[in-house]
Design goal:
By secondary structure, the chain is of the alpha/beta class. It contains 6 helices and 11 strands. The strands form 3 sheets. A 4-stranded mixed beta sheet has the order 1-2-4-3, covered by helices on one side. A 4-stranded mixed beta sheet has the order 5-6-8-7. It has a 3-stranded mixed beta sheet with strand order 9-11-10, with helices on one face. β10 and β11 form a beta hairpin. α3 packs across α4. Bound molecules: zinc ion.
């Protein structure tokens, strides 16, 4: 079975099982729409169900597409490159392409770059900070839901490794945000005033960062 969504044709794969009580719709990595249902479910019922859930199917498709796009491209400091695999060691940057070996550990490379760049930016934002705050230690790791965390007791700032993929202005904002927590642990009015005093354009940058989550 095939269906059209937004002028694009999609395969519908129907998987009938005796043991299944409900009908499930999933979108596979290859963008096939996968329907799991009972052996007694008719094609008409399946079509009706798909039509009733078209907007959530669309969302699933878009999510898959976004994920795929992220895998095909290489993002570094706000620039997008095509990722090209070559039989050559290390990493080479072209104007719009990045060449790596198949076994190249991209995450390890990101981490290494981040350790250097994040520390430089942390020092830069710390030195420019207009209020007296303790000098924080830096930790970098991948986080699912946050760009940064500040431990106000140990003065440790943790930054999301994913920031290495984005324009450096977002990193600077997150750093100022976390440094401000060294003065104000909560998101109080005083906190946001402190952020603004140290990062004029913070509202715009914060909004853009939120949209990208
Ligand atoms: Zn915060």
């Amino acid at each position: 079975m095939k269906i059209m969504i937004n002028n694009e044709e999609y395969n519908v794969v129907i998987d009938k099982k005796i043991s299944t009580k409900n009908i499930y719709i999933r979108v596979k990595e290859n963008l096939d729409i996968y329907v799991t249902c009972n052996t007694f479910t008719t094609d008409r019922e399946i079509i009706k169900l798909i039509n009733n859930n078209i907007s959530s199917i669309e969302k699933m498709i878009n999510k898959r597409k976004r994920k795929k796009e992220k895998e095909e491209y290489f993002y570094y400091l706000g620039k997008r490159y095509d990722l090209v695999y070559l039989n050559k060691d290390g990493i080479t940057f072209g104007e719009e392409k990045v060449f790596v070996n198949n076994s190249f550990d991209l995450n390890k490379w990101y981490k290494k770059q981040a350790e250097e760049i994040f520390q430089i930016e942390l020092d830069k934002m710390y030195n420019a900070f207009i209020y007296r705050i303790p000098y924080p230690s830096l930790c970098i790791r991948k986080m699912k839901t946050r760009w940064g965390v500040c431990n106000t007791k140990t003065h440790k700032v943790t930054l999301n490794l994913e920031l290495i993929k984005k324009n450096i202005i977002y990193l600077d904002y997150v750093i100022v945000h976390e440094l401000s927590h060294l003065l104000y642990p909560n998101h109080s009015r005083d906190f946001w005033q402190c952020v603004e005093d140290n990062f004029k354009d913070y509202k715009k940058i914060r909004k853009e960062l939120k949209q990208d989550e």
